[in-house]
Design a protein that fits this description.
Blueprint (H helix, E strand, L loop, with lengths): L7 H4 L1 E2 L6 E2 L9 H5 L8 H6 L24 H9 L2 E7 L4 H18 L5 E10 L4 H14 L3 E7 L2 H5 L7 H4 L4 H22 L1
Parallel strand pairs: 3-4, 4-5
Antiparallel strand pairs: 1-2
């Protein structure tokens, strides 16, 4: 899709979750950066592909498109930022969290200046929180102090069931809806939707 060999509609697959479709990638995506490095529109390939969704003739219309990015700030991530309206930042409650967040904020500002002036940070979700670890609590306090209301109230705890779910080929909500990890993600989804409504109403 990103190299324009197929239309985005031809890359979409249905999932076991009603009304949830995916456009999967493979390890070949790692070569994408080298393949189009010298193309003038290299930062806008994803934006151009997504522009072909939700035409009047399309049977399926999409409300949200979520782009899952690698942790590295490469051309794939830049494409996602150039195409997105907003960014949701998962931040592990670990020692170097704020350092990584600071670098990400600089990148977001660079993309906003050069490629996508409408890009915003929707929110930051704190993940892999361990209540038994004093460091986790300190990271939460530091991030909230640094980013204020941008940090979601919901915190995702460390949870074995969340870690197990991918090995069974399922999202954790289908693997074990009642575990604490699933319930935290349900609360997070509700909070994101509520914030989205507030932003649209503003």
């Amino acid at each position: 899709m990103l190299t324009r060999e197929v239309h985005i509609r031809d890359a979409i697959l249905e999932t076991a979750v009603p009304r949830l479709h995916i456009v999967p990638s493979t390890m070949d995506l790692s070569g994408f950066e080298l393949e189009i490095a010298h193309e003038r529109d290299r930062a806008f390939r994803l934006r151009d592909a997504l522009s072909h969704l939700n035409n009047d003739t399309d049977e399926v219309q999409y409300t949200y498109v979520l782009v899952d990015c690698p942790p590295s700030l490469n051309l794939v991530t830049v494409n996602a930022m150039a195409a997105a309206h907003s960014i949701l930042v998962p931040l592990q409650c670990e020692f170097f969290a704020l350092e990584g967040l600071s670098q990400l904020l600089k990148t977001v500002e660079q993309v906003r200046t050069a490629l996508n002036p409408d890009l915003t940070i929707h929110g930051i979700v704190l993940t892999m929180f361990d209540a038994r670890n004093n460091l986790s609590g300190q990271v939460v306090a530091d991030v909230r102090s640094f980013m204020g209301e941008k940090v979601y109230d919901t915190i995702i705890p460390r949870n074995v069931r969340v870690s197990e779910a991918p090995s069974h080929g399922k999202p954790v909500l289908l693997y074990d809806l009642k575990c604490v990890g699933s319930q935290a993600y349900v609360r997070l989804a509700s909070e994101i939707i509520q914030r989205e409504r507030q932003l649209r109403a503003a």
